[in-house]
Amino acid sequence: DCPGKECTGGRKSNLTLLRNKLYMGQRRRTEPVVESTTTAGDHGNLRRSQSDRTEYSQKLQEKMAPQAVSFTPATSPQEDEEEEVSRRMMARRVKIITELMQTEKDYISDLDLCIKEVIQPLRNKQIARFDVDGLFSNIELVHQLSAKLLSLLEEATTDVEPPMQIIGEVFLQIKGPLEDTYKIYCYHHDDAHTMLESYERDEELKQHLRDCVQSLK
């Protein structure tokens, strides 16, 4: 109904406005729902949720990673060195105890031979000028005490782990008898030595001693 150019310009203007409205409507339909429905606070919650998932994923990966990655030595070099020193000291202690017991066994064996091959035969001969007890003092009591000491040492070490072998207690237990026995032996030692020298000057008595010593060989 409008005349000429004015009507044509009006139609163009209406078409342009219609296109713009259609474009805006199409844009609203294609944009994400989040953008049109969430508030600023909702955006913060979404970001936090995304961050939590990322943190959880990192922790899960750490737990699933091989243990060797975070492996640390069970002991430090200093602890290893101290353990090695303790092992060497324990090995030395075991060796000393073994040698102590072997020495006691050898000593008892020598005393056995002396009593059986020297003292008893001389007593059996009943030589008037030969004081067997004066020459050998209380050596038989020494033998008995040595056998007792060895028995206690074996009891303290048999079927007992080396760290639990309390050897000192053995010597404390037998300390009194050892002192009493060896006091007597040592007290008569010089007199026995002098007596032996006098017997060696007597050919008959010297021969008796030689016979006994020969039997030991």
Describe the protein's architecture and organization.
- The longest helix has 49 residues.
- Helix 6 runs antiparallel to helix 7.
- The protein has a domain of 135 residues: Up-down Bundle (Dbl Homology Domain, Chain A).
- It is mostly helical.
- About 11% of the residues have low confidence.
- The protein starts with a helix and ends with a helix.
- The protein is built from 9 helices and no strands.
Keywords:
0% strand, 82% helix, Dbl Homology Domain, Chain A, mainly alpha, 217 residues, 9 helices
Total beta strand runs = 0
Q: What summary fits the major beta sheet?
A: none
Instruction: Give the CATH superfamily of one domain.
Output: Dbl homology (DH) domain
Unreliable segments (pLDDT under 50, ≥5 consecutive)? Answer: 30-48, 67-71
Query: Measured on Cα atoms, how large is the radius of gyration?
Result: 54 Å
Strand content: under 5%
Fill in the CATH topology of one domain: Dbl Homology Domain, Chain A
CATH class of one domain, anyone?
A: Mainly Alpha
User: What is the terminal separation in angstroms?
Assistant: 159 Å
Which range best describes the helical content: under 10%, 10-25%, 25-40%, 40-55%, 55-70% or over 70%? over 70%
Report the average pLDDT across residues: 78
The global form is rod-shaped
